[in-house]
Design brief:
Layout (H helix, E strand, L loop, with lengths): L3 H21 L21 H14 L2 H17 L35 H9 L4 H6 L16 H10 L19
Helix pairs in contact: 1-3, 1-4
Length: 177
């Protein structure tokens, strides 16, 4: 599963592709607004239902949808990960930082950005899908083994400072017995 930003990007791409296909369907003069012919069926009264349905469809013509997609891409660009050597998911740059002495990001993980979550909700993101999104975490270094003091004492006692060659001794060298 992609992360939140990739999920939104895919949804925008799908909506753009559909709008472009709709614009070219029937040789419409895209990007001019298109008119829609709605088949409301025999059971619907044409005078009361066809008007609002046709008006709704014409308000969501391909040009309008593509403008909305372009605006959503600007929101994605504004709410991008911090970058500058930080992990790819770290700190939403658009959410900003707190005002303390050592400013911390308000949103530490871009999957938690409230702006991107609201945008994703408009594209139909469900709680189940959100739970399945990738949450890349920074690689943590392997823990260092604890220092074995007994081995360190043996090492130092096996190599007393008296065995340091004269060339490596400094002016204040004091040989240890």
């Amino acid at each position: 599963m992609p992360d939140l930003r990739e999920w939104i990007t895919r949804k925008i791409r799908q909506r753009e592709d559909l709008a472009k296909r709709a614009a070219h369907y029937g040789h419409l003069d895209w990007p001019q607004p298109c008119t829609a012919a709605v088949d409301v069926g025999e059971g619907w009264p044409l005078t009361t239902e066809a008007g609002p349905i046709a008006e709704h469809i014409s308000e969501h013509d391909p040009a309008t949808v593509l403008r909305r997609c372009a605006a959503d891409r600007k929101i994605l660009a504004e709410h991008a990960p911090k970058g500058d050597g930080w992990p790819s998911h770290y700190a939403c740059e658009g959410c900003g930082y707190d005002a303390s002495y050592c400013p911390e990001p308000i949103t530490e993980h871009v999957n938690d950005c409230p702006t991107l979550l609201a945008l994703a909700e408009g594209y139909g993101l469900t709680d189940e899908q959100r739970a399945a999104l990738d949450r890349p975490e920074p690689e943590r270094p392997a823990p260092k083994p604890p220092v074995n003091l007994t081995a360190l004492v043996r090492l130092l006692s096996a190599n007393p400072t008296s065995s340091v060659p004269p060339a490596l001794r400094g002016p204040n060298w004091k040989a240890q017995p």
